[in-house]
Amino acid sequence: MEIMPKRTNSKIQIEFGENLRRIRESKGLSLSEVSARCDVDKSNIAKVENGQFNIQLTKIFELAKGLGIEAKELLDF
Prior knowledge:
Elements: H1 11-26, H2 31-37, H3 42-49, H4 57-67, H5 71-74
Helix pairs in contact: 2-3, 2-4
């Protein structure tokens, strides 16, 4: 039986997620609306916002496009 490593939420993941949520809410967008605008599942966006998921760099650019912002804005926290 393989033991799965404990998931830890890094400070960067948490801060990135908080910034993503702040931007999304400031634009008045729901998780579903952002999901429909880019190739990221709604549940994964929620996990990112909660600091529970380490997002890939390519998905950061897709989220930025869906939010109508530059990717660097998501990293400015």
